[in-house]
Structure formats: C-alpha cells, structure tokens
Design goal:
single chain; 84 residues; alpha+beta; 3-stranded antiparallel sheet; two-stranded antiparallel sheet; 5 strands; extended
C-alpha cells in the first residue's frame, strides 16, 4: 500500500496530465481555431469594450461552431461574442 501512495505522490510532484503541455484546436467545416487564438481574440474584444486586462479574473467561453460564433463572459459581468 505504501508503494502505491508513493507512486501517486511522485506523479503529482513530477507531472502527469495536470502539468502536461496541452494544445486544443476546434475544427468545424474546414475552419479551425486554436485555444490560444480564441483567447487572444476574446481578450482584444473585451478590452475594446472597456475591460482592463489586469482586472480580468474569470473568463467563461461558449463555442457554437454551428453559428460560427464564440460567446464569452468576463468576470460574470461583461458579455461578448466573436466570430469563429
């Protein structure tokens, strides 16, 4: 039993899925957007709407490829959308 918990503890310290580098790409009807690209577009749009970069604490993203739109909510207050 001690051996199994040692292995689990070592995995938490050294890596595993939680610390692995991830790359997310959304594809729909011949178009694709990376997670980083979408987040940068959302940030730019939110700043245009008056959000301050250093005040952004929470970003909720809703991707609706069938509408070719990405909806977002910043800090549970500022709502916006960008084109997919």
């Amino acid at each position: 039993m001690a051996r199994k918990s040692s292995v689990l503890r070592a995995q938490k310290i050294t890596g595993g899925f939680a610390t692995a580098k991830k790359n997310i790409v959304i594809q729909f009807q011949g178009r694709e957007r990376s997670e980083d690209n979408l987040l940068n577009l959302i940030k730019e749009d939110a700043i245009r709407q008056g959000a301050k970069d250093d005040e952004i604490e929470c970003v909720d993203v809703y991707i609706k490829p069938e509408e070719q739109t990405v909806f977002y909510v910043i800090n549970k207050k500022l709502e916006g959308k960008i084109s997919f």
